Amino acid sequence: MFYWLMKYVVIGPVIKAVFRPWMVGRRNIPTEGAAILASNHLSFSDSIFLPLMIDRRMAFLAKSDYFTGKGIKGWATRMFFTATGQLPIDRSGGKASEASLNTGLGVLGRGELLGIYPEGTRSPDGTLYRGRTGIARMALEARVPVVPVVMVDTGAVMPIGQRLPRVGRVGIVIGEPLDFSRFEGMEGDRYVLRSVTDEIMVALQRLGEQRYEDVYASTVKDRLATAQAAKAPTSRH
Questions:
Q1: What is the C-alpha R_g of the chain?
Q2: How do residues 97-110 score in pLDDT, each as one tens digit?
Q3: To pair with 234 at 20 to 30 A between CA atoms, which of 108, 111, 160, 177?
Q4: Closest to 53 in 3D by CA, of 197, 231, 173
């Protein structure tokens, strides 16, 4: 109830009036049953616009830091993410990654839509980067289709590091569902998982015509951080 109230009464109408989002390919989203919506990731706002523009309820896996803030700001952030269907996950790896996988499988097991960013993090420069294989494992274990989604101009509206959005139009392009039933029972094969993930990334690249680089976005971010640290002036005593 809280989700629908925020979507159609409190948050949704305001966001639609200000940013006038458009969508192409709405018919490609299944009207019933579980599916994974695999999206490129340009901005924090991707997780707001996509759930807002589709008729069915969906959930995103969001880093747990968004749910642990203190004070009024922390409470407001927590309420906002809960209202927009975000589920807290720990991205530290190991057992935390397994727990994240199980959380996603729980959503799919209920016959719902699950939003995933295969790159694992926001693109630092608008390039589409290599996908993580967790999405493939979920798709094969849950036996669900994967729907490619391309967010358009969300990075311009709310770039990384900017607290308040700029006013501008954003768009969403929904591609045709990808069927991986031919790999049923092979979710334990890492070569299959890589092949499925790469197929998803190819579909995203063709749909959005983004420049693609076969390296993880997190690796690029680490390189940029290292380069920035090297350029920073050092204090002298």
A1: 18
A2: 677 788 889 999 99
A3: 160
A4: 173
